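In this supplementary section we document a worked example of the pipeline. Step one takes a protein sequence of length 293 as its only input; no multiple sequence alignment statistics are reported here. Step two produces a three-dimensional model, which step three serialises into structure tokens for compact storage. The input and output of this example are shown verbatim.
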Amino acid sequence: MPHLHHGAPKSFGPLLVTITLVFVTLVYVRGWISLRSYRLDRIPAWRACSFIVGLFLIWLAVASPFSALDHELLTAHMLKHLVLMTIAPPFIWLGEPVRSVARVFRPTMWQTTTSFSFLYQPGQALGRLEVCWLAAAAALVGWHIPTAFNLAMHSPVWHFAEQSSFLATGLLFWWPVVQPWPSTPKSDLSMILYLFFATLPCDILSGFLVFCDRVVYPDYLSSSRLFGFTAIGDQQCAAALMWTCVTIVYLVAGAILAMQLLSPEKRLDAQLVPPTSGVHAAPPTVPQGLEAF
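The serialised model returned by step three reads:
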């Protein structure tokens, strides 16, 4: 069955994505260089590299020659989803992009979080763990329903919507985990539970695809047999890839958060924090954590 992605839209889409990512990279680098003149507020080089790696992963998934394989192999299709939703977002947030980009478009904005006061209430609502978890789970499960999956396979518009929703919900999911500026850094047991429960939708979906005795997505019955895969073998490989990758990534993130939570510095800080302080406090005028930079 021929796919509608072939032709002009296929060649124009990757070019547009590439230009957009190059522009974002240049804006970020300009802000990063500008912040280098400030001793306390500079962004470390490893964070800048992390951001660029995240953008490069997005390019690989969406605009590189590899992206065309998602209509031939479900494994390649699943790998794209994993990159957009699970792997690229934490690299993006580790790069502190908000601070760097804000420095370019409004040089005084980066100096205080009061410049973002109009985003404080909506940001608190979107940053709630249950909202982030539900958004990511809905995108993952919703787009893997056969009807929605086939719609995205045959329509460039819906395919773009699918990929955009994976990236957007991935960024939303990883925000409370990485906690980039201007959020207030904190680490508690709820974040570890958050990551644990986030594996459940992936486990259920992966388990269903691995142990199902029929091909769930009929489009791959007529696809070319790259690497000697059968349709059912391709489906099982894709599910095993998602199962393994998500488990490892979340396990690593949870281990890092657990080490931060159990560190002596964290326990000392918890003893020194007044009882009246908490999540309802007003946003600080100076971003916490910048002293380490």
